[in-house]
Amino acid sequence: MHHFRYVGNKLYCEGVSVESLVKKYGTPLYIYSQRTLTEHFQKLDTALAPLDHLICFAMKSNSNQAVLRTLANLGGGFDIVSEGELRRAIAAGADPGKCVFAGVGKTEEEIEFALKKGVYSFNAESEPELQRINRIAARMKKIAPVAVRVNPNVDAHTHAKITTGTYENKFGIAIEQIEAVYARASKLKNLRLRGFQMHIGSQLTSVQPFEQAVKKVIPLVERLKKKHGLEFFSIGGGLGIVYNPALESGTAEWWQSAKAKSILTPALYAKRLVPLLKPLGLRILMEPGRFISGNAGILVTRIEYVKRTGKKNFLIVDAAMNDLIRPAFYEAYHEIVPVSRKNGTLISSDVVGPICESGDFFAKDRPLPKVGEGDHLALLSAGAYGFVMSSNYNTRSMAAEVLVSGNKSAVVRERQPVEAAWAGETVAPWQK
Ligand code: LLP
Fold it and tell me: Which of 109, 124, 194, 204 is most buried, with most CB under 10 Å away?
């Protein structure tokens, strides 16, 4: 469910028309629905209610402070992957004691900062990292809470670039080596073995790989709990969302449809996993990113030109791969709808950006209504891994972000002034 829908022929985010936001704030524009974020968080929270649990939002999916504040206010913690993310979360009002620090390449400075702030756990990905955390903690006269990330060697059946739980990937420690690693880590005086972590991949649309991975590691978790007194088990994120057709999936009727029955919902996820996890008697952490933020955001863009080449109908828009890289990077599908609904026949169109790369596209051969220069299109399901992956490529400034709640809207990140794209650059002294 989400709160982007047509009222008459106009696309709305909750109680605010997208057209009015575009008039006020221009394009390209990211728009987030606070109610959608809240409901997604609550759905997971309810599904996991039978367990002692903590939802740590994977803020890499959307780190806007207004989004983080929404989730912190609901009692959520955060899955962070850098000092920058921890600083950002704290600035947004997060409790570091509810933050878990993931990632294969934590630097000394990052570990020191996170230890000072008191994160809930370092989710370590290698033995050299455990040794480094121990060394830094000793120097700071602290005990560092750690978990080790297991690589369970389970295929998540998702896009190769977002699979993380097989031995082809750089993540975690092979399941066969984990016990020995915990045994050695238990000898490191400044570590507290607090938990166990797993994350097998992103955008999973079936519950099976989750089930398979949890079943595979449970005997191991039981043994480790007994031996080392673990307190938590983090089952990672990865819950997939509906990218197609995302607009219909926002409605209650759609959720009654046959198609909806095959969707991986929090209820189904919990139905299969809670009975496996409950007997462990551990605190269960979950690190969802996309499930919470994905369908809570759209990217709105203006059509600059319609270019017909005889072979193709190109809609050239003012957003580009620097704003939303997912189609270029993962061949990802994003539903595209006009901000003002049009009737009439559909025309097969390529929606492309102005960047000088053939990969700069949002859709190819997509049936779309007849639209023209000055019309606006909305790219749906852009709330996760959208703005956060944007760049200044082609010296394009980064888009503005707006948060909507009911009838209210506010800019929660102003459009980047283009000069900021070269801030900090200078010519070399001998060129002056
Ligand atoms: N926990 C860990 C340790 C992770 O690495 C990730 C995502 C998550 C949780 C959250 O996964 P989610 O619930 O969002 O699936 N840029 C890609 C996705 C990269 C995911 C990276 N790790 C995309 O646009 O599809």
Answer: 124
